[in-house]
Design a protein that fits this description.
The protein is α/β, with parallel strands linked by helices. The protein is built from seven helices and seven strands; from the N terminus they run αααβββαβαβαβαβ. The protein is 40% helix and 12% strand.
């Protein structure tokens, strides 16, 4: 391969995307280069716009316009009042659950799992989840993390972090295939996982 820094750097960046290794990154880079005007140009512009205008809420973790500023204990994008928070790993999980119309309530998006590479516990918005539970009269926290070791470790850590509150904590039912990630589940599986969710803490509620 030729030694062009620009290309090398792009390949390195693209290999960091989920599901892509160096080989697929190379294919993508070639596709981009062969379609400069149709792909690279609009993509660079769109990426710049997304970078400038879209960010994650530091409180609930969902996506929002950067121009809407959420203060420390008030997330301005959450208008409706619910008494449930569904905790998911990623925004793609939130989207799947929303699309399935199974659940009406708040979301809290961790942005990863505790053992994800480079993911620090403090980045997972668990402290702000605890604050939300305390401040927003939340009655139930539904842990909808993946049925992976990382997902379950994270769920356990959250349960422990909430032990000083009297919120009811539930977990999606064991219909989840082992290793199953929420975003890849069909609506039927999600529906029964939600419907048959079980309480996992021994608090009073
Ligand atoms: Zn928010």
């Amino acid at each position: 391969m030729q030694n062009l820094d620009e290309i090398e750097n792009l390949i390195k960046l693209i290999s960091k995307l989920p599901g892509l290794g160096p080989k697929s990154a190379k294919r993508i880079v070639l596709k981009l280069i062969n379609n400069r005007d149709e792909l690279i140009k609009p993509m660079a512009k769109t990426l710049a716009e997304v970078y400038k205008n879209i960010s994650r809420c530091k409180i609930c973790g969902t996506l929002k316009l950067t121009s809407i500023e959420c203060s420390y204990n008030e997330c301005k994008i959450l208008e409706k009042k619910y008494d449930k928070i569904c905790v998911v790993e990623n925004i793609s999980d939130q989207w799947s659950i929303e699309d399935s119309n199974i659940y009406k309530g708040y979301f809290h998006i961790l942005g990863g799992t505790i053992t994800s590479v480079g993911q620090k516990k403090e980045d997972l918005l668990i402290n702000s989840l605890v604050d939300r539970v305390k401040n927003d009269k939340i009655e139930e926290v539904i842990l909808a993390t993946s049925a992976t070791v990382e997902g379950q470790t994270t769920a356990y850590y959250i349960q422990d972090s909430l032990k000083d509150t009297d919120v009811k904590i539930t977990k999606l039912a064991q219909g989840l295939p082992v290793g199953g990630e929420i975003e890849s589940l069909d609506d039927g599986t999600l529906f029964s996982a939600f419907k048959n969710r079980s309480k996992i803490n021994s608090n009073t509620n």
